[in-house]
Design brief:
Shape: elongated
CATH superfamily of one domain: Macrophage Migration Inhibitory Factor
Strand order of the largest sheet: 1-2
CATH architecture of one domain: 2-Layer Sandwich
Distance between the termini: 42 Å
Number of strands: 4
Length: about 80
C-alpha cells in the first residue's frame, strides 16, 4: 500500500491537485506495479510564511527579496 505525502505551498487549485494525485498514482502503477486502489496520496499545503528556502521565507522570495549572504557565517 503506497503512501505518498506531497508538501506544497498554498495557492494550488483543486484541478492541479487532481492532476498531481492522478499522475503520482499512475507513476506508481507503471514503475512499481502498484494497484491504484491501494495507493494513497496526501497533499499538505503549507503557508508561505512557514516555508523557507535559501535562508528566506517563501513569502519574501515571492516578493523579490533575496537572501542575505555573509562571508563568514556563524556556525
Amino acid at each position: 500500500m503506497p503512501y505518498v505525502n506531497v508538501k506544497i505551498t498554498k495557492g494550488v487549485t483543486r484541478k492541479q491537485k487532481q492532476v498531481i494525485v492522478k499522475d503520482i498514482t499512475l507513476l506508481l502503477q507503471r514503475v512499481l506495479n502498484k494497484k491504484p486502489e491501494h495507493t494513497h496520496i496526501v497533499i499538505d499545503e503549507v503557508e508561505t510564511d512557514n516555508w523557507g528556502f535559501a535562508g528566506v521565507l517563501t513569502t519574501d522570495l515571492r516578493r523579490g527579496k533575496q537572501a542575505v549572504t555573509r562571508k563568514n557565517p556563524r556556525r
